Amino acid sequence: MTTSDPAAMPTADRTLTDRVLRSFDAAPSPRLREVMQSLVGHLHAFASDVRLTEEEWAAAVSFLTRAGQISDDKRQELILLSDVLGLSMLVVGINHPVSAAATASTVVGPFFVEDAPAFANGDDISGGAGGQRCFYSGRILSAAGEPIPGAAIDVWHSDEAGNYDVQYADLDGAQGRGRLRSAADGRYWFSSVLPVPYPIPHDGPVGELLAAAARDSMRPAHVHFRVSAPGYATLTTHVFAAGDPYLGCDAVFGEKESLVRTFVRHDPGPAPDGRVLDVPFCTMEFDFVLDADSV
Ligand code: BEZ
Ligand code: FE
Q1: Which atom of ligand 1 is nearest to the CA of 79?
Q2: Within-domain flag for 58
Q3: Do 30 and 112 belong together in one domain?
Q4: Which of 23, 81, 154, 222 could be joined to 238 by an S-S link, Cβ 3.0–4.6 Å?
Q5: Rounded Cα–Cα distance for residues 81 and 209 (Å)
Q6: Where is 191: in which H helix or E strand?
Q7: Smallest CA separation from ligand 1 atom 9, residue
Q8: Residues 174 and 249 in one domain
Q9: Considering only CA atoms, which of 175, 188, 200 is closest in space to residue 107?
Q10: How far apart are the CA of 55 and the centre of ligand 2, in A?
């Protein structure tokens, strides 16, 4: 049984836990006091529960040290650890509750870029990325179903190799990434390429943990969206491709059923942009529903 109740611990440990808890009593910030006392309570209960050995304690310290050492401004192994432990999704859920009508939120992930290049509706945002052409469209709506014009829509996704543009050291411009604005009727439309499933970075300590647990490092194919408009809560989400073999086992637990859509496959022929394509292509339609800003 797992419990954070100090009463369930041996007396000597309980005295220690009580003393550590009390050491935060005078913290000037009530929030720091609350967070640290809860953390200490759970941490001590956890170590007692599993009878943590000194070797295991040392291995955990080494793991966290190596996770810090491999991190830099491009790679954040500790966020990745939070992702594979489901903590990132838990924090998203706590901080971005949505009404029943609104689109669900999910993790932002490490490949978001603040200043993505601007595009107009109808543009090709692939930037030359490899992959099957896909035409994306939909509307930005309020929870009452009204169109939201002028919403900023950030889009980013992988190429056919499962890489994001920022993962290529020698790339000049953005690929599979851009910022659009919804039209007067709330609509957006653009083309790019089809994303594919890809592994999260697994050549570091987090990869070792996944391997030791016989866990997969794959994420199901998805396109990231961040939608913001004045007066509305910003939505950070993905659209997942129906039928993906990794649905149900997303390495970072970011998937939600309501975010899965069919990427419809079309034979060569007339495409939504008016051209006649001599290769197969896809279409994907998704309406994003934003809650009103609560602040
Ligand atoms: C992503 O979808 O881009 C992502 C999210 C969490 C960890 C790694 C990648
Ligand atoms: Fe992603």
Answers
A1: 7
A2: no
A3: no
A4: 222
A5: 9
A6: strand 187-193
A7: 109
A8: yes
A9: 200
A10: 35
User: Residue-wise pLDDT tens for the chain (295 aa)?
Assistant: 445 676 777 776 779 999 999 999 999 999 999 999 999 999 999 999 999 999 999 999 999 999 999 999 888 999 999 999 999 999 999 998 888 999 999 999 999 999 999 999 999 999 999 999 999 999 999 999 999 999 999 999 999 999 999 999 888 899 999 999 999 999 999 999 999 999 999 999 999 999 999 999 999 999 999 999 999 999 999 999 999 999 999 999 999 999 999 999 999 999 999 999 999 999 999 999 999 997 5
CATH classification of the domain holding 275: 2.60.130.10
204 in ligand 1 pocket by Cβ < 6 Å?
no
Q: Whose CA is nearest to atom 3 of ligand 1?
A: 109
Split into its structural domains, the chain has a count of: 2
* Whole-angstrom distance, CA of residue 222 vs CA of residue 199: 12
Q: What pTM does this model have? A: 0.91
For ligand 1, what atom is nearest to the CA of residue 219?
2
Structural domain of 28: 7-52
- Would the CB of 219 count as within 6 Å of ligand 1? yes
Question: Residues 189, 163: contact at Cβ < 8 Å?
Answer: no
> Are residues 121 and 41 part of one domain?
no
Kindly state whether residue 57 falls inside one of the protein's structural domains.
no
81 Cα: distance to centroid of ligand 1 (angstroms): 11
What single-letter amino acid sits at 6? P
Q: Would you put residue 109 in left (φ > 0), alpha (ψ -120 to 50) or beta?
A: left
